[in-house]
Structures are given as C-alpha cells and as structure tokens.
Amino acid sequence: MASTRSILFTSLLIVALLGYMYVDSLVYLVSRWLGTEDYSHGIFVPFISGYLIWQARHRLNQVSREKSWLGLAVIALGLMLYVVGELSTLFIILHVSLWMVIVGLAVTLLGIRGAKVIAFPLCYLLTTVPLPMFFYAGLSSKLQLWSSSLGVGCLQLVGVMAFREGNVIDLGPVQLQVVEACSGIRYLLPLTSLALLCAYLFKDAMWKRVVLVLSSIPISIVLNGFRIGMIGMLVEFYGKGAAEGFYHLFEGWAIFMVSLGLLILEMWVLGRVKASMPGRPFLERFTWSDTGSRAVEGRGLKPEASAKTSEVQGLRPEAFPSDLQHSSRLQPSASHRIVPGAAYFCSVALLAPFTLFSTVVVDREENPPPRTAFVDFPMQVDGWRGTPFPLEPQYIDALRFDDYVLADYRSDTEQPVNFYAAYYRSQKKGQSAHSPQSCLPGGGWEIVSLTQRELPMAQGMLHPLRVNRAVIQKGDQKQIVLYWFKQRERDLTSEYLVKFYLLWDAFSRQRTDGALVRLASLVGPGESESAADQRLQEFAVVARQELTRFVPD
C-alpha cells in the first residue's frame, strides 16, 4: 500500500512540475486546437493515444521488465530543448521538448521493450503539434494557389466562365477570394492524422499502410479544389450568399466526409489486394479488441480450444500473437507487473531543480541599450517626404511589438515607398519578429519570386546591406518588397539565423532586442522593375542610416 501511495504521489508531482514548466506552450497548443479548424483534431489525439495505450495493457504485462536508465538521458535531452525553445522563441521546439520528456518517462517506467509496445500512441501525439508559422504560411500559400487553379479548372470543365488572378477567382460580376482558411490545409492536417490512425489499425503489409497515409495528401488537395469549384457554381446560379454562412460550413463538412469515405474505400481496395495475409476478410485485419477470446472467435476458433491446440502442435501459448491468446492467459504475473524502478523516481530528482531553473529562463531580465522612439522618426530624409499613418488595432494585437513606424515616403512625383519597421525590446515566444513572407499573399496577391539581393554601401557603413527581395503580383499590378531583420548589430535575411542569434545573444549578452524592416513599392504603369528597384534601394540606404538610433546595435 505504501508503495502504491509513493507511485501515485510521484506521478502527480511529475504532472505538476511539467504543467508548471510548459504552461505557456500548453495554453498556446490548446488555443490552436480550439481556435483554428486546421488543428481542431488535436483535442482528440491525446484521448485516442490514451485509449490505444490502455488497449495495449495486456501486451505490456507480458513484456519482461528490464532496468533502463536511458529514459533519464531522453528526459535530459528534452529539457535541453526546453531551454533552446524558450530562448529561440519557437513553440514547436517546446512542444517537441515536452513530447521527449513524456517518452523518457515512459522508458523509465516501462523499460525499452515496454516503450516499444506503445511506440505508435506516443508518436501519434506529434500530430497535435502546430507547424512553425513560416513553414505553415508557405505551405498554405501554395495550397491556396493549387486550390484556386483546381477550382477554376472545375468551373471551366462544366462551362462556367472563370479566370484566376493569384488566389482570386473572377466570375465576372462576382470575385471569390480563396483565403488562407480555404487553402485546404484544414483538410490536409486532420485527414493525414486520421490516415495515420487507420494505417496503424490496418493490420496488413507495410507498403499498403504507407500508400494509405501518402494518399491522404492528394485526396485533400483535389477535393478542396473540387469544393471551391462547387462553390463557384453555386455562386454563379444562386448568388454570393452560397459562399457564406451555413452553406459554406456545410459544404466544408460534406467534403471532409467524402474524403473520409475515400480513405475507407481505399482501405477496402488495398485489403482485396493479395498480400502477406491471404484469405483473411477485410474487417478482420483490424485489431478491434485486445481480448484474445474475441480475436480467436474472429478466426473461427473457440477460445477454450486455443491453448489445447497449441499443446497438440507442441507450441507454447506465448508463440501465438498476443491477440490470439485467451484472456485468462493474459493475466499479469508478479514479475511482469508494472512496478516503477529507481530510474522513474530519479526523474523527479531531475525535473524538480530544472523547474526552478526554468523560472529563471522565462523571467530573465534583459538590458537593451537606450533608443529613440519611432514617433520621432524623421518624415523628411534626403529629399524623401513621409506621411505616417496608424496600423489597424487587430494587426497590433497580433504582432505584439513594442514600437513601430508605418509611413509612405515620396520623392518628387514617383510612386511612394511604404516603410514599416517593428521593434521588439525582448523577443520571447509569441512575441518576436516574424517574416513578411507569411503576410505577403493576401487580397489576391501572389508571390512571383523570392530572392536575396545585396544593396550598395552608403557612406559610413562598414558592410553592404543584404535583403530579401519579393515580387508579388495581382493581375496587371506588380509590387516589389524588400525586407530584412535588424537583430542587434546584424542585418539578417534568414529566419533560421534570426532564431540562432536569439539563442546565442540571450546566453552571451542577455539581450534579444531587434526589429523587422520592410519596404514596398508598386511598379507604376509603364515602369520597369529596375526603376522600382532603384527607388527602393535609394530609400533603403537612407533608412538604414537613420535606423541605428531607433534600433540600436
């Protein structure tokens, strides 16, 4: 009894420590599950994994226990990732860190063999982790364009006149914008997660399982394109209301059910293909129950005959698959009961002090140099005259910067240069400079090219300025965007380098302040891209000289 109480106390203490350490990342995770349909499946995955682990309890009782301290090493690696995730402001690293700690705890409790038994339920938890924002934005942008093209193709196939401009479908009197929410990623992620679960339950050849999972990708993309085409046809005949409200939601639900039906149909077809388990009906390829009696009955045998048959054939009962054995033979022996060893209790000794250390990491004080507020950024610079204007409140709430400037600068009668800079005093998870690449596609704009360019040096500058150059287009309109990250004394173009130097400077210099700088200008009628490039480059050199006062090195 005392041993049971100590195990329960230890487990509750571990849950409390992990909850305290990962509270911010867990809140973010749940908010993505409940706040976006892309990850709405995430709320169910922990329960599914828990059920699969419970279903495997008899197999766990049959696995011999060995003392394994490898779990502590896995926990230690997960805790190191925690520090990296906190200092590099990446939620995905924090989520993976928590997952590794959970895996390490499973190894310390069950041993390596026991952890292998529940390997899939543990790995399945990773399907709840949201993709990094810059990767998500790039994937969503591509899916928007593919879905738009497929939708226009469907419309033209049935004789409806439709044209595509970026992610906008022109139906003549009505234009449909394929926004990020309609990109199809909200089908792709849940359907892929569901396909993984089906592949696990589909007890057949491995190549069939792989085909099942991979097929979920084209199914979700093609059906989303068909959905957009269907919405276009309804709008053509019944007006714009067919693309809004209940009809829009119902169409999405119906298409997802069709995609699920296609997965089931594919499983039936794959089950009919001759494989390593001939002669077994399709439904019997699934592990519906962990009790041996039902599994044996599904094979046409009486449960009480299974043990006797094994003796006649000279086989030990253990030679049968776990689901063929009678439930009476699955009772755990004393030597195979799950009894935590010293490694499991030592995990508390590792987590407790690290929890205190995590408080220091999260609540660290930083000392950035003094700076001038952007409200004093000059509106006249070397012949450029600026007109400031405020950013909309919803963008301020989403970007969470500490200071910003937004203005249009003109030189003579040329097209204006839109100048935007956002300063972060201390970059932490959920509050850091993010790439405009995730914001550029929108309102029908399509990224035509994204390259890097080195701008000429200005007087007093020690090195040339290297920037990202994006060309975005919507119909006949074209716009050129230059952007870079000013992180302390560095001008960076790579988001990965930004995260690396955040980690490095947080350790070595106790500061993570920095800014995102973005310039944009339309290519005027009859104007070449080179003329717009020249205009942007001239202002970039001027702005860079002024920025040091507002974003200190």
Describe the structure in your own words:
- The protein is α+β, with helices and mostly antiparallel strands.
- It folds into three domains: 2-130 and 333-362, no CATH class; 133-272, no CATH class; 374-550.
- The protein is built from 17 helices and twelve strands.
- The chain has helices at 2-21, 23-35, 45-55, 57-62, 70-88, 91-117, 119-124, 133-157, 185-201, 206-238, 245-272, 292-297, 303-312, 342-362, 393-399, 495-508, 529-550, and strands at residues 163-165, 168-170, 175-177, 380-381, 384-388, 403-410, 417-424, 446-455, 465-474, 477-487, 490-492, 514-522.
- The strands form two sheets. Strands 4, 5, 6, 7, 8, 9, 10, 11 and 12 form a nine-stranded antiparallel beta sheet that branches. Strands 1-2-3 form a three-stranded antiparallel beta sheet, with helices on one face.
- Helix 9 runs parallel beside helix 11 (245-272).
- Mean pLDDT is 78; it is low at 275-336.
Any key phrases for this structure?
three-stranded antiparallel β-sheet, 3 domains, about 550 residues, about 15% strand
Summed up:
This protein has helices spanning 2-21, 23-35, 45-55, 57-62, 70-88, 91-117, 119-124, 133-157, 185-201, 206-238, 245-272, 292-297, 303-312, 342-362, 393-399, 495-508, 529-550; strands at residues 163-165, 168-170, 175-177, 380-381, 384-388, 403-410, 417-424, 446-455, 465-474, 477-487, 490-492, 514-522.
